[in-house]
UniProtKB/TrEMBL annotation:
Name of the protein in its database record: F-box domain-containing protein
InterPro entries on file: F-box-like_dom_sf, F-box_dom, LRR_dom_sf
Region: Disordered, residue numbers: 1-33
Signal peptide residues on this chain, from the entry's feature table: none
Compositionally biased tracts (Polar residues): 1-22
């Protein structure tokens, strides 16, 4: 056999081997496709629901027909770009916003059972697109977060969302409220959670009307919003027979009166009031106060019964009137208290010193799990505190302890 014949034979052998490998690879790809086809569309829809970017959802739906079916019938959650992702768009170009708006509209119109919609973006969408999104989701939508600056045309988000039968949670930001309660119209039939932040031109009457209209509302949050009032006293009166959680952040009122018999959690942060009054017989389980200035009176129903169910209490950098509430808590200690945090502001203002020590806290709150104190609260040095911990003090349930020294800005952590 000549050399040319041997080379020709070798080429034929290599060609056959390559064909065999390609055939095996094709079979392997075919097996993978058959495995994907056998995957339940419901599971694929749940996977796509965890993707926090509409662009990635669309790319994934191009995988095969099964994934497109999952997108249409079993996609439950849909997100736009997050705030930190929006910053990477070059100068928020109008073309980029239009592309995202078209992509979101096209994707939404393909879904049939969308339950959660998160629209988080720093640019303005058109009113036509927003109305189309809300109309298409119909009665399937349960959770809506809309944090977008006002569009070129006005969209009354509360009016659009008020008639959705299954809506359970609503978070609005950068919007205005043109809402008045109409007793002949039933709205927000199932709304359980309402969060309003950075609202524009809201009146106290509108807020009062909104809260009273939501008959099943359990959680209400109001943050850094411009609120006006026809009342010269600038009073916010909220009444709810279902409210269990109330949160104010960055708000300023002359007077706040809250009437909620079922209230369990109260949180106030970075706000100023002349008077704050919690009316009737609410029994709090969680009380969190951070950087609050109250000029005259703080009334949280300071009786022997209102703090007996308290499980969590945090008080930071607040005025003297807030510390008066602490006296009521320690005078009528809750055996259910698991978390206690008392931090005073590091200023030259003279506060009355609480006559407490670590042993007293251990005796009053036997179920305490987390304890965070500043030296200004106990009027003791960190060394003395350490010596108390080495004594007969008993914390059977305590897992986390932090003693903070405001003068030296040091902390002792004991886990």
């Amino acid at each position: 056999m000549t050399d040319q014949q041997q080379q020709k034979r070798q080429k034929i052998t290599n060609s056959c081997s390559q064909t065999a490998n390609e055939s095996g690879g094709a079979e392997e790809v075919g097996d993978q496709e058959s495995e994907i086809e056998g995957f339940p569309a419901e599971v694929i829809g749940n996977i796509l629901s965890y993707v926090a970017n509409v662009k990635d959802v669309v790319r994934a739906s191009w995988t095969c027909r099964k994934w497109r079916v999952a997108l249409r019938h079993y996609l439950h959650n849909l997100h736009t770009l997050q705030h930190h992702e929006s910053k990477f768009l070059p100068a928020f170009q109008k073309s980029r916003t239009e592309q995202l708006e078209f992509l979101l509209t096209d994707t939404l119109l393909q879904t049939l059972r969308l339950q959660s919609l998160y629209i988080l973006h720093m640019t303005k969408f058109s009113a036509t697109a927003v109305i189309a999104w809300l109309l298409h989701t119909g009665d399937s939508l349960r959770h809506l977060t809309y944090e977008v600056p006002m569009s070129t045309l006005y969209v009354d988000m509360l009016e659009r969302c008020g008639r959705k039968r299954c809506l359970e949670s609503l978070h609005l930001r950068y919007a205005t409220i043109r809402f008045t309660a109409d007793p002949t119209t039933q709205r927000f039939l199932c709304l359980l959670s309402l969060t309003l932040s950075n609202m524009i031109d809201v009146t106290t009457l509108q807020l009062q009307s909104l809260v009273s209209t939501c008959r099943k509302l359990e959680s209400f949050s109001l943050a850094t919003s411009v609120v006006t009032s026809t009342d010269p006293q600038w009073t916010l009166n909220l009444t709810s027979s279902s409210l269990k959680s109330f949160f104010l952040d960055g708000m300023y009122f002359d007077s706040v009166k809250l009437e909620a018999n079922l209230l369990k959690a109260l949180r106030l942060r970075d706000s100023m009031f002349t008077n704050f009054k919690l009316q009737k017989g609410a029994r709090l389980s969680s009380l969190r106060i951070d950087n609050i200035m109250i000029v005259d009176d703080l009334d949280l129903g300071n009786s022997t019964n209102y703090f007996l169910d308290l499980e969590e209490m945090e008080v930071r950098r607040s005025c003297v009137n807030v510390w008066d509430v602490i006296d009521h808590v320690f005078s009528n200690p809750s055996s259910k208290l698991r978390k206690l945090e008392l931090i005073r502001r590091a200023t030259t203002v003279c506060y009355p010193v609480l006559t407490l020590n670590v042993e007293t806290i251990a005796r009053l709150f036997p179920r305490l799990d987390r304890l965070h104190l500043s030296d200004e609260v106990l009027d003791i040095s960190t060394t003395t505190a350490g010596n108390q911990l080495q004594g007969p003090t008993i914390f059977e349930k305590l897992r986390f302890l932090e003693l903070h020294c405001l003068r030296s800005h040091e902390a002792i952590l004991l886990v």
